[in-house]
Amino acid sequence: MDLLKTSKIYSILFLLFYCNFLTGQKEIQTTYLRPSIVNLYGQSEPSNKHNIALKNLKKYSSPLKRFDKLTVDYPKLILENLPELPVKPVLPKMPVKPDSNATKKDISIYKEQVRSFLKDKSKYKSDIRKFNTAVRERNESQNKQIDKFVKQSSRDIIGTWFSRDSLGNMSSDLWNERVNHAKTDDHVNLAKNSAINRTTLLGEDLIKKTYVIIHLVDKIYTYKKYYDNKDRENEILGKYQKKKNKPILRVKEGYLSEYKSYLYKLDFNDSLLIDFYDRYWLDEYIKTGREEKIADWKNATFPVNNLSIYNFNHNNSQISKQYYLNMMVSNPAMIVLYNKKIKSIPPVENLIPRIGAVNLTSKVLNINIKNIEDFKLKVPVFSAYPILAKIGTKEGIKKNKRWAIYEIKIDKNGHQKKHKSGYARITEIGQNDTIASGNSATSIFRQHGGKRTYSGMLLEPKHGGFFEFGIGNTYSSTNKSLQGTTFDIGFRLFSSIKIGYDYTFTGFKIDDFVGLKLEKPLEYTDSTNVTYIFLTL
């Protein structure tokens, strides 16, 4: 169905609404649909170093392979009128109390220090309140400006999804392209037996899974400033101590930078989609009411939900000349080598072009892999045994990672619930980067615990699982070679190396080893009427 044909738009909307009404919200999703990530950028001040850092963030910030990147042409944000932060106050350590051998003079000095310390403490309490207030006000100002910025960008994000051009005309070209890349064999096979245009429904679901990350270049300062501040803090801390503080060794030189990343989700639901077509949709077939819709679009915004804020630090540094000079004093025998090192040190300014060369997008997504349902990989079991699933290189899965196997049951209220039935590890990854056709490559899993697995059960990554323990019995009424007891205990290193003991006391040995081994793909057969019962960790 072509969305450019405006006479069909409302019939499509009816199908979207009706199908979503039928499916409801209680159904457990067993197929992964790729979320789209929009990267936006901002900086706290318009300095040259901030500009360089922002340019590098744009270059290096890419999502993980399981996500799609939605590139939106939107200007950067430069924050305005941020409150200046005072120097962070430091409370000195308490004076050292004299021992029993102290003289009257020592005791008198101590009492005077205590009185001075109490004054410092009173001033510190006042200063730290002012400092915390300034930090809070600065953060609030940042957050308000960024919330407003992201909300304003929502219009361009939706415009990008619908390929809006300079004349205001829209199309489903990008929508269809993203659907073709994101759809799985399950979507293809379902579409073959459906009278409804599943591309339209998938496109709507893709828009609902749009996440926005705005990366803010907040602070950039030199290692000299960092060390100077450490010396200041140590000087204050040791104000009443007998031992005099030495300046901290300047081991590094270069630049430190601080960033904030804000994660949002575009809240584009069915009612907004209907309102969007009614108020903003234009194409070459629409001749009347264009001016009104174009005018409305200029002020359009769509809801976005703020999910979380993350602070990141990054440094661009090299060993300093001062470090090698200190080493010459402590180790004179190496003076020739240290002189060569000093001569080879490049100018510290050479580090500036690398400020901000870090992938903050992948960091934000990795933090939320286990927290946000849309980010979790999931796939139904295609067949067993061995366990096959339609997932692979396109989703960026890794060999030997542990997955949980779930059986989906209906509770007394009619809601679907997941019940864990076992664990499996990937032994071979399918090459499925091509567009799904219904016959995509499968990945192979080896079950290492739990009950028997059936086609249609759910597989989801289960992080951790470095320690394995399984013991139980295998029964078969048709294949006696599979009967027996299995014992498996081990500890995994780097996912692919296993230390432990594994033995199958059956006529058909699956895997026997003791000690250290590099994991390898396992092949074994299965027969009907076979039941696996394991106690697993």
Low-confidence stretches: 1-8, 10-25, 474-483, 504-537
Estimated helix fraction: 25-40%
Distance between the termini: 50 Å
Quaternary form: single chain
Beta-strand percent range: 25-35%
Radius of gyration (Å): 31 Å
Largest sheet: 6 strands, mixed
What is the H/E order?
HEHEEHHHHEHEHHEHHHEEEEEEEEEEE
- Helix count equals 12
Question: What is the β-strand count?
Answer: 17
Q: What number of domains?
A: 2
The global form is globular
What do the pLDDT scores average to? 81
Structural class: alpha+beta
Task: Briefly summarize what is shown.
This protein has 537 residues and is of the alpha+beta class. The chain contains twelve helices and 17 strands.
Q: Can you describe this structure?
A:
This protein is of the alpha+beta class. The protein folds into 2 domains: 31-85 and 121-354, no CATH class; 377-536, no CATH class. 33% of the residues lie in helices and 26% in strands. The protein contains 12 helices and 17 strands. Strands 1, 2, 3, 4, 5 and 6 form a 6-stranded mixed β-sheet that branches. A 6-stranded antiparallel β-barrel has the order 7-8-11-10-9-12. A 5-stranded antiparallel β-sheet has the order 16-15-14-13-17, with no helix packed on it. α2 (48-60) links the parallel β1 (36-43) and β2 (68-69). α1 packs antiparallel against α8 (270-279). The protein is globular. It starts with 8 loop residues before the first helix and ends with a strand. Residues 1-8, 10-25, 474-483 and 504-537 have low confidence and may be disordered.
